[in-house]
C-alpha cells in the first residue's frame, strides 16, 4: 500500500497533468474554429472544380487526345498511396484511423499482385507505417516548420506526385485523409487522384439545358486544369486534416481532463481513508498506553 507521501505526490502529479490537458483542450478549441472555417470554405471550390472538369471532359471521353491525368495510363498495376497525417500526436485515434485505412488498402492490393508505393505526408504517418511498410515507402514530407497550411504546401505535394506520374512511376494514385464532420466525428477517406475521379452524372457539356463552347480547345483547358485540380484536391485534403486533427485533439484532451479529475477524486478518497486509519491507530495506541498505566 502506498504511503501518505506517495499519495500526495501522485495527486500533485495528476493535477499538473490535468492542467496541461485542459490547456491543450482550450488551444485546440481556439485553432479548431479557424481550421473548420478554412475546410468548409474549400469544399465548394473543390467540388465546383470537379464539376467543371467533368463538364469539359464529357466530349473528351475515349478520344485519342485525352490527357493522361484524366484517362490514366491504361494499366492498373502500380498504385501510389498518398497518406496525409498530422505532425503531432495526442489527437486520439486521428492518425491511426487514416493509416489503418491506407494499410488495409495496401494489404488488399499486395494480395491482388499489385505493386504498391507509399508517399507519406506528415511525421505521424511515417511513425505508424514504417514498421510494416518500410520497403514500400518511396517518399515522405512533413510540414513541422509550417504554422498554417497554405496552397503552396499543396502545390509542392502535387508537383512531386505529378513528376512521378510523368516518369511512369505509377498508374493509379489515391490520397488518404480524414474528412471533418464534427468535433466528435472525423471520417477517414480515400479519394482517387489519378486518373481523376470525376463526379458521376456530369460528363456532358450540357447543364440545365445550356450548351457551352470552349476557347481554346478542351485539350488545352484540361492540360491546365487537371494539374491545378490535383493541387486543389490535395489542398482540400490538407485543410480537412487540419480541422479533423484539432477536433480529435479537443475531444481527446477533454476526455483526458475528465479522466484526470476522476483519478484525483479516487486518489483523494484513498488518501483520506488511509490518513483516517492512521489517526485512528494512533489514538488507539494512546488510549491503550494510558489504560496500561
UniProtKB/TrEMBL annotation:
| Location(s), subcellular | Cell membrane; Membrane; Thylakoid
**Keywords assigned by UniProt?**
ATP synthesis, Cell inner membrane, Cell membrane, CF(1), Hydrogen ion transport, Ion transport, Membrane, Transport
Q: Which PROSITE patterns match?
A: ATPASE_GAMMA
Q: Name one GO molecular function term.
A: proton-transporting ATP synthase activity, rotational mechanism
Per the record, membrane topology reads: Peripheral membrane protein
Instruction: Supply the Pfam families for this chain.
Output: ATP-synt (PF00231)
Q: Which GO terms describe its cellular component?
A: plasma membrane; proton-transporting ATP synthase complex; thylakoid
Q: Which domain of life is it from?
A: Bacteria
Q: Which GO terms describe its biological process?
A: proton motive force-driven plasma membrane ATP synthesis
Q: What does this protein do?
A: Produces ATP from ADP in the presence of a proton gradient across the membrane. The gamma chain is believed to be important in regulating ATPase activity and the flow of protons through the CF(0) complex.
- HAMAP family tied to this protein: ATP_synth_gamma_bact (MF_00815)
- Tell me its family: Belongs to the ATPase gamma chain family.
Assembly and interactions? F-type ATPases have 2 components, CF(1) - the catalytic core - and CF(0) - the membrane proton channel. CF(1) has five subunits: alpha(3), beta(3), gamma(1), delta(1), epsilon(1). CF(0) has three main subunits: a, b and c.
- Write the protein's name: ATP synthase gamma chain
Species, as recorded: Propylenella binzhouense
Amino acid at each position: 500500500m502506498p504511503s501518505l507521501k506517495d499519495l500526495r505526490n501522485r495527486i500533485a502529479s495528476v493535477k499538473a497533468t490535468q492542467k496541461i490537458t485542459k490547456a491543450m483542450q482550450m488551444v485546440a478549441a481556439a485553432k479548431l474554429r479557424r481550421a473548420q472555417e478554412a475546410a468548409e470554405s474549400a469544399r465548394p471550390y473543390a467540388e465546383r472544380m470537379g464539376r467543371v472538369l467533368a463538364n469539359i471532359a464529357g466530349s473528351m471521353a475515349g478520344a485519342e487526345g485525352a490527357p493522361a491525368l484524366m484517362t490514366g495510363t491504361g494499366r492498373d498495376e502500380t498504385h501510389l498511396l498518398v497518406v496525409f497525417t498530422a505532425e503531432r500526436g495526442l489527437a486520439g485515434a486521428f492518425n491511426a484511423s487514416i493509416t489503418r485505412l491506407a494499410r488495409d488498402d495496401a494489404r488488399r492490393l499486395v494480395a491482388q499482385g499489385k505493386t504498391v508505393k507509399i508517399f507519406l505526408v506528415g511525421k505521424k504517418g511515417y511513425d505508424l507505417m514504417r514498421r510494416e511498410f518500410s520497403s514500400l515507402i518511396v517518399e515522405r514530407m512533413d510540414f513541422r516548420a509550417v504554422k498554417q497550411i497554405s496552397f503552396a504546401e499543396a502545390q509542392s505535394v502535387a508537383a512531386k506526385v505529378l513528376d512521378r506520374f510523368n516518369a511512369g512511376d505509377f498508374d493509379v494514385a489515391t490520397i488518404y485523409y480524414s474528412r471533418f464532420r464534427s468535433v466528435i466525428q472525423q471520417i477517414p477517406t480515400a479519394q482517387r487522384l489519378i486518373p481523376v475521379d470525376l463526379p458521376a452524372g456530369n460528363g456532358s457539356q450540357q447543364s440545365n439545358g445550356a450548351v457551352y463552347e470552349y476557347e481554346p480547345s478542351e485539350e488545352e483547358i484540361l492540360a491546365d486544369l487537371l494539374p491545378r485540380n490535383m493541387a486543389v484536391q490535395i489542398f482540400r485534403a490538407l485543410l480537412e486534416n487540419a480541422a479533423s486533427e484539432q477536433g480529435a485533439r479537443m475531444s481527446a484532451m477533454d476526455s483526458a481532463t475528465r479522466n484526470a479529475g476522476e483519478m484525483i477524486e479516487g486518489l483523494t478518497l484513498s488518501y483520506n481513508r488511509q490518513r483516517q486509519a492512521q489517526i485512528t491507530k494512533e489514538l488507539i495506541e494512546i488510549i491503550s498506553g494510558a489504560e496500561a498505566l
